Amino acid sequence: MKQIMIALGAAACMLQAATVEITDGVPFVEVKGDDGKTYKIEREQRPGSYLTNTYALTSRPSPPFFIQPFEAAPKVETYGELELLDFIKNHQGVFIDARLPNWYYKSAIPTARNIPFKIFLNDTPEREAVLKSLGVVYDRDGEYDFKNAKELLFYCNGAWCGQSPTAIHALIEIGYPPEKLKYYRGGMQAWQLLGLTTIIPKKEQ
User: Fold this and answer.
1) Number of domains the chain is built from
2) What is the mean pLDDT of residues 165-173?
3) Structural domain boundaries, residue 172
4) Residue 132 domain-assigned?
5) CATH number at residue 148
C-alpha cells in the first residue's frame, strides 16, 4: 500500500511539473521585437486559469460587432496561432495591431506594431509616411509602386472585430497586393483564450 501511495504521489508531481506546450515539442517560442527586446511566448501554465477580462464576453451589440468572414478578402491568407508565431519568429514581414491605441495599450501580442486601421482610410501625410515605412514608394508617374512592399499580418480584437478587415480592404483599394496581406482572425480573444503571452506596451513619449 505504501509503495502504491509513493507511486501515486510521484505521478501527481509529474503531472504538476508537466509543461503546457504550444504544440508537440514546442514549450515556448522566443521572438525579437523592433525594440530590441526578446519576448518569450508560451501558454498559461497555471491549472484552472480562465478569462475574466473583456474578452470573456460572448454578447456584443451589432452594429458594429458583426462576426467577420473567415477570409478577409480574396487572396488574403487567414492565419492561426502557429502560422502567426512562425511569421513573427522568422521576421517574414510586419506584424500589425490594427486596433485603436486605447485597446493596444491595454494589452497586445508581443512584437506587434500598432498602426490603427483608421490611418489607412484616407489619403493623408500620416498614411503616406506609414506606407513608405512598409516599402511602398511612388513611381515616375506618381503612382504607388508596391514591388518592394512588405508582407503584412493584421490582427485586432477577434472574430467579431472589423478593424483588421477594414484596414486590409483599404490597402487593397489603393493597390496593395492582397497576396502580401495576412489576417489573424482569432485576434486578442482567441490568443488569450489559448493562454498565450501578452504584454502591456509602453506608451511612446
Assistant:
1) 1
2) 98
3) 2-193
4) yes
5) 3.40.250.10
pLDDT tens profile 183-198: 999 999 999 999 999 9
Domain-located, residue 169: yes
pTM: 0.89
Q: Mean per-residue pLDDT for 24-53?
A: 93
**Residue 43 domain flag:** yes
CA distance linking residue 71 with residue 127, whole number of Å: 25
Question: Residue 3: pLDDT above 80?
Answer: no
Q: Is residue 205 part of a domain?
A: no
